[in-house]
Write a structure and sequence with these properties.
This protein is an alpha/beta fold. The chain has 2 domains: 14-183 and 378-394, 3-Deoxy-D-manno-octulosonic-acid transferase, N-terminal domain (Rossmann fold, 3-Layer(aba) Sandwich); 190-373, 3-Layer(aba) Sandwich (Rossmann fold). Helices cover 40% and strands 16% of the residues. It contains 16 helices and 14 strands. The strands form 3 sheets. It has a 7-stranded parallel sheet, sandwiched between helices. Strands 10-11-9-8-12 form a 5-stranded parallel sheet, with helices on both faces. Strand 13 (319-320), helix 13 and strand 14 form a beta-alpha-beta unit. Helix 3 (84-94) crosses helix 4 and helix 9 (216-229) runs parallel beside helix 14. The two termini are 28 Å apart.
Length: 395
């Protein structure tokens, strides 16, 4: 599909490019509320992605959209290789009126072909970090010539970077579509939680989630502090990448710590045990069982944060470090409101987790406050739908 050897895409009014799984979810958040702006025919949508995971998500969404009466017809394909000749053939075959690019997908071949075809381009939910901007500015004339017709960025900082690259006149801001996706989300109730049988009722459960390689030495200090302050606690350690499991095995054995692999845990863990998580898809259920949570990816200046919103939907105030620039779209207010506890360094992490262990659980209150915070920032998907409708009808 990426070389077009198996055929060309069918004609479409709208082409949506979602690079991988995360962007594919955003694409469906936009599409599920989309209706055809044309009185006499459905809105024909071509959805493309670069990854197998993205394709699976797009195909599931297409099945959900089929037959809903919204007047939207969807085809899903892999995104063609971004060479000029391939992209010209693909765009000439699809002849889209509008192309929607999600997040930071700047493909020169695709943008060139769209301009040659007369296709309007909207870049939405746009994010750009300083390093990416510096790379694009190596060829400022090229990217100014290829500028999308409109850019909707998720923050003023992102908007300023896009404006530097493409010009201020075409850049606006929007709420991140990820807030729309979170409305109504919650972790499993404790009585329905698949992990309930693995944890003792007489010991607190502490989660150290999404731990990155660059902060491992700091997490070692956190583990030592928790053993000192809460020796009875069961600790769930979730490395962000599974190839770090051997490193943690060696550390635990070298320090004589009591630990077990999640995959080998039979029955309830003993108080004071560290569970080294080597199975996928159980971080959110673990948040649902935890008494205190640290979400990693933010203790080292080289890091930019991991998703700390998930524990909030489970009714827990997460502890995080200072470095979370990839999530600045969430808003500094989330820390100022007390929903997220930001600390500086391992000792402060231990202190915050120990305080959470001893404090009364307020899951319903925290989840309700988090829901209000999220709802106040929704509307990104609808803003994109309105802009697309304008382009489609006035192209």
């Amino acid at each position: 599909e990426r070389t077009l050897d198996d055929g060309l895409p069918a004609s479409a009014d709208l082409w949506i490019q979602a690079a991988s799984g995360g962007e594919a979810y955003l694409a469906w958040e936009v599409l599920k509320g989309m209706k055809s702006p044309f009185p006499d025919h459905p809105l024909r949508v071509l959805c493309t992605t670069n990854t197998r995971q993205g394709m699976d998500i797009l195909c599931r969404g297409a099945e959900e959209t089929h037959g809903t009466g919204q007047g939207v017809a969807v085809q899903c394909r892999m995104f063609p290789f971004d060479s000029p000749s391939i992209m010209r053939r693909a765009v000439a075959s699809a002849r889209p009126k509008v192309a929607l690019i999600l997040e930071t997908e700047i493909w020169p071949g695709f943008l060139t072909a769209c301009k040659e075809q007369g296709t309007k381009v909207l870049l939405a939910n746009g994010r750009m970090n300083p390093r990416s901007l510096a790379g694009y500015l190596t060829w400022p004339g090229l990217f100014r010539d290829l500028a999308p017709d409109a850019v909707m960025a998720v923050s003023e900082r992102d908007a300023a970077r896009f404006a530097t690259l493409f010009g201020r006149e075409r850049v606006t801001t929007m709420s991140n579509i990820k807030f729309d996706r979170m409305v109504g989300s919650s972790g499993p109730r404790q009585k329905d939680n698949p992990l309930a049988g693995l944890l003792p009722k007489d010991a607190p459960f502490v989660v150290l989630g999404s731990v990155r390689r660059q902060e491992e030495e700091r997490i070692e200090a956190v583990l030592d502090g928790l053993r000192r302050e809460a020796p009875e606690a069961v600790i769930g350690l979730f490395p962000r990448h599974m190839e770090r499991l051997d490193r943690w095995r060696e550390f635990f054995d070298g320090r004589g710590m009591k630990w077990v692999l999640r995959s080998e845990l039979q029955g309830s863990a003993e108080p004071g045990t560290i569970i080294l998580w080597d199975t996928f898809g159980e971080l959110v259920p673990a948040y649902g069982m935890a008494r205190a949570v640290f979400v990693g990816g933010n203790l080292d200046p080289k890091l930019k944060g991991q998703n700390f919103l998930e524990p909030l939907t489970c009714g827990l105030r997460p502890v995080i470090g200072r470095y979370w620039s990839s999530f600045h779209w969430v808003g500094r207010e989330i820390v100022e409101s007390g929903l997220v506890v930001e600390v500086d360094g391992p000792e402060a992490v231990v202190k915050a987790l120990s305080a959470a262990i001893k404090a009364p659980l307020e899951r319903k209150k925290v989840a309700s406050e988090a829901a209000r915070y999220i709802r106040s920032r929704t509307g990104g998907a609808e803003a994109v739908r309105k802009r697309l409708a304008q382009f489609l009808v006035n192209e």
